[in-house]
């Protein structure tokens, strides 16, 4: 496993009212979510970046408004409408 070090000013911790470990954990999660959202990583690899089990990452996707299917809820709804229209 590789390590990524990011320097940040201590004021960030003060502004967010977080301890270093909490901030770093959240930063890993947000990075993983973005890499998944942009299609650069699978849910499994993104979960590893976030440092959580894949099942937990799938749950977190929903909390952050992302779909584990790689589509937004609106896109899924449009697909469903199109599928229903095509079947008639």
Helical stretch tally: 5
Poorly predicted regions are: none
- How large a portion of the residues is in β-strands, by DSSP E? under 5%
The overall pLDDT average reads 89
Q: Structurally, how many domains make up the residues?
A: 1
Q: How many strands, what sense, and barrel or not for the largest sheet?
A: none
Shape: elongated
The H-and-E topology, N to C, reads as HHHHH
Helix content: 55-70%
End-to-end span in angstroms?
52 Å
**Helical/strand content category:** mainly alpha
- How many strand units? 0
Based on CA atoms alone, the radius of gyration comes out at 17 Å
Description:
With 88 residues, this protein is mainly α. 65% of the residues lie in helices and 0% in strands. The chain contains five helices and no strands. It has helices at residues 10-16, 20-37, 43-50, 54-63, 73-86. α3 (43-50) packs across α4. The chain is elongated, with a radius of gyration of 17 Å. The mean pLDDT is 89.
Nutshell version of this structure?
The chain is mainly α and 88 residues long. It contains five helices and no strands.
Key words describing this protein structure:
mainly alpha, elongated
Layout of strands and helices, then pairs:
Layout: H1 10-16, H2 20-37, H3 43-50, H4 54-63, H5 73-86
Helix pairs in contact: 2-3, 3-4
């Amino acid at each position: 496993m590789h390590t990524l070090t990011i320097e940040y000013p201590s004021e960030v911790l003060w502004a967010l009212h977080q301890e270093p470990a909490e901030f770093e954990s959240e930063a890993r999660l947000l990075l993983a979510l973005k890499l998944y959202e942009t299609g650069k990583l699978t849910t499994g690899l993104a979960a590893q970046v976030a440092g959580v089990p894949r099942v937990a990452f799938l749950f977190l996707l929903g909390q952050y408004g992302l779909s584990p299917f790689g589509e937004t809820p609106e896109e899924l709804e449009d697909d469903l409408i199109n599928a229903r229209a095509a079947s008639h």
